[in-house]
Amino acid sequence: MGPPASVAAVRRATRSAVDDLDPGDLVLVACSGGPDSTALAAALAFEGPRAGLRAGAVTVDHGVQAGSADRARTVVHQLSELGLDPVEALTVDVGRAGGPEAAARIARYDAFEAAGQRLGAAAVLLGHTRDDQAETVLLGLARGSGARSLSGMAPVRGIFRRPLLDLPRATVAAATPQGLDVWADPHNEDPAFARARVRHRLLPALEAELGPGVAAALARTATQLRADADALDSWAAHERSEAQRSPGELDVPRLTRLPTAVRTRVLRLAAVDSGCAPSDLSAAHIEELDRLVTDWRGQGPLHLPGRVRASRSCGTLSLTTAD
Questions:
Q1: Of 1, 102, 219, 320, which has the highest C-beta tally within 10 A?
Q2: Residue 72: inside a domain, yes or no?
């Protein structure tokens, strides 16, 4: 008899996610101690050695909840018992930028990436499921953030890989090994957090009104939009190179010939390269920058985040950083 269907599905997805790596490579799983990441950790502990890989893990102590250090020690112990090595608990300082959810996410990802580089890992696996993807799409839709945001989480981005994006949360949770002390993060149930409201109120309401399969449909939408966004980003990178006269200067006539979706991406790339922090650069900023190209009536310079100044003169759009 083989393993239960849920365990087999998670193992299969994990194996597929690392099958391009070389024997001897180190793969880390980022594990909170919750059911999804613990199921992924167990799958990596099983599949990694069979693929000739070294399998380890990292967990994060955010320091924002009582008992978080004890929780991290418990996770380290359980992951070590699964056979993962090395296993580390990473302590982070959570800032305030973007609110508590965003700040914790930034701190967590920075810690994972730094640990991966320090330990020489070829990949860091994340336990996001199809349901997580659907929630991300709905949150992006509510923000009006455009196709890139609606494309959700990428299966692979840099050192990070998400093997479980095609599996429903229920399947992954059912693959969690029996007998482990699996942690239920109270933030996941707290309606003060937008993702918790989407998870426990919005998605169930959509399923009730529209029928089952909403989460799967949203995840498919993310995949399709990601392909579109990748193509547009590639086109924009090429056009940005062609339109650049010198550093910080773009040819306006060439920009005006571009479709809006490409032109605004070119402008965003130029603004970021000139010193705008991507997180501070809003759609409204890009819209006003685009007006300097498509609806210029002699208006004065535009002041962007990062002390970047955008102005138009003699068919050239200039982006400079104020002293």
A1: 219
A2: yes
Closest CA to 135 of 59, 219, 52: 219
In a 13 Å sphere around the CA of 66, the CA atoms on its Cβ side amount to: 0
pTM of the model: 0.86
CA angle 49–181–177, rounded 5-degree value = 40
Q: How far apart (Å, rounded) are the C-alpha atoms in residues 141 and 1?
A: 44
The DSSP string of 196-239 is HHIIIIIHHHHHHHH-TTHHHHHHHHHHHHHHHHHHHHHHHHHH
pLDDT in tens, 237-282: 999 999 999 999 999 999 999 999 999 999 999 999 999 988 788 8
What CATH number has the domain bearing residue 127? 3.40.50.620
Residue 140 and residue 180 in one domain: yes
- Say whether both 72 and 201 belong to one domain: yes
Domain boundary among 217, 239, 264: 217
What residues have CB less than 8 Å from 295, skipping those under 6 apart?
none
Shared domain check, 311 and 183: no
Decide if pLDDT at 164 tops 90.
yes
Rounded CA-CA distance 298/310 in Å is 13
**pLDDT 10s digits, 91-136:** 888 776 667 677 888 889 999 999 999 999 999 999 999 999 999 9
Least Cα distance to 252 among 291, 303, 304 occurs for 291
Starting at the edge strand that comes first in sequence, how are the strands of the sheet with 308-313 ordered?
Answer: 244-246, 249-251, 316-321, 308-313, 302-304
Report d(CA 323, CA 307) in Å as an integer.
8
Give per-residue pLDDT as tens, 165-195: 999 999 999 999 988 888 887 878 888 888 9
Mean pLDDT (the chain, rounded):
92
Q: Are residues 195 and 291 in the same domain?
A: no
* Same domain, residue pair 197 and 281: no
